[in-house]
Amino acid sequence: MPSYDLIVIGTGPGGYVCAIRAAQLGMKVAVVEKEKTFGGTCLNIGCIPSKAMLHTSELFDEAGHAFAKMGIKVGTPALDLPAMLRFKDEGVEGNVKGVAFLFRKNKIEAHNGVGRIAAPGKVEVTAARGPSTVLEAKAIVIATGSDVAQLQGITIDEKRIVSSTGALSLEKVPRHLLVVGAGVIGLELGSVWRRLGAQVTVVEFLDRILPGIDTEVARQFHRILEKQGIGFKLASKVAAIDSNDLMLKVTIEPVAGGTAFDLDADVALVAIGRVPYTEGLGLEAIGLKLDNRGRIPVDGRFATSVPGIYAIGDVIAGPMLAHKAEDEGIAVAEIIAGKAGHVNYDVIPNVIYTSPEVASVGKTEEELRAADVTYNVGKFPFTANGRAKANQQTDGFVKILADARTDRVLGVHIVGSDAGNMIAEAAIAMEFGAAAEDIARTCHAHPTLPEAVKEAALAVDKRAIHM
Ligand code: FAD
Ligand code: NAI
Questions:
Q1: 66 exposed, middle or buried (CB, 10 Å; 0-12, 13-18, 19+)?
Q2: Model-level pTM greater than 0.70?
Q3: 14 alpha carbon to ligand 1 midpoint, in Å?
Q4: Number of H helices, E strands in the chain
């Protein structure tokens, strides 16, 4: 029976990073993956293909609407959707091949098939064809990720009623795309198809978009998306989708009660969240119980209730983000190797890759108020930033929340072009326990968008220069 120090089940960003770090630390490592390619949701059907489509559709939109104003004459751009989808697939292929290369480089043995934990220290791998094999290890890390949350009574066929997976490969631009859920997927993929020519309507259960994001940021972003032409039906739910005709008939009901109405759409995207994935792992048989949301409970060292079995990533509590899964993968490998692995959950950045982008790290104003923390706010709009004005990309602002007593930065929230790159500066500052004053006194290159971060830090002390 093949024997290892560590077996990792699942090769998403949590699993593959964990395997590499464990191999670096001298462990003999195997990974088990049920899909044909490595990289999990993120590389195959998540972060990577969605960012490729956001990139290409943004350029398409700019070519059609912004180039002429900049003095670039290209005529009306024509969409070659099959080529755009190929470009996306090539990006995915490059990434998943990269993981296979890293496994070889680090002498990690990969086993294809569904992994089931037959007993602590034993994983049975069942491939699509051929007999199953049993592997042995001192430690097992479960990194099986998450799957699409289903809308009750509505069947996803990935053609007309799609999840994010189908929405990343539509063969035709829908005339009307109805999105259920104004969360990250709904707004990112809604933006993609709006830019490619679809009418987009987003139906959201709550009375706001992006729950969890700072309310002021979400409000401004909502206005920007409406200006771009995305329609919203807030405080509404989809009661039924009738797919008997050529067009889908979507019945929408106000959450508070009242008259339902129908909308016609050619494609409906269900994006109401994701759920932890533990199917086929055989957890019940080994006495490992899930929590009330289907997640695997772990302690501060990622250990489950069964000795020798750990869990990380989307399958445990916390934000369902690739970089959170990666950091947990590194931490758990270090813990298993007897080192001090650690993840700082107070400083996990969150980025929505729309145009403009939305990025945040740390606490929102609502969270600080709920925790009775007194704080100062420093805000700076991109309308007053030289580079943003030069590029005519002035939507949005930077907001810094700092402790009123100590000036320590507690949260940074940005709506604006390139916000996703700018938030890294805030994360580093917070990781080092910086005060707003520290950011304010750091020399920022001119002319750059991050100067708005410095100005927001100055604004905490009411001394922004360009405002
Ligand atoms: P996953 O990536 O889900 O990987 C789990 C792996 O385990 C899969 O390969 C699965 O096949 C395998 N597996 C499951 N069960 C078994 C079994 N029994 N045996 C063998 N293998 C098994 N996050 C970001 O941070 N940034 C983004 O821009 C971003 N964009 C996204 C866009 C979309 C459309 C979606 C859907 C998600 C996006 N995410 C993004 C979220 C991100 O993809 C996840 O947080 C991340 O993939 C979680 O990593 P993971 O390793 O926990 O699990
Ligand atoms: P989400 O949790 O971000 O948003 C779901 C939205 O659907 C919420 O606004 C919720 O109120 C709403 N909703 C729930 N039930 C509803 C119903 N019945 N009718 C109408 N609205 C309903 O989930 P989403 O967008 O599906 O994304 C899943 C996960 O993937 C997220 O948790 C996110 O962490 C991750 N992701 C991250 C990305 C990034 O980092 N850029 C990009 C895409 C996904």
A1: middle
A2: yes
A3: 8
A4: 13, 22
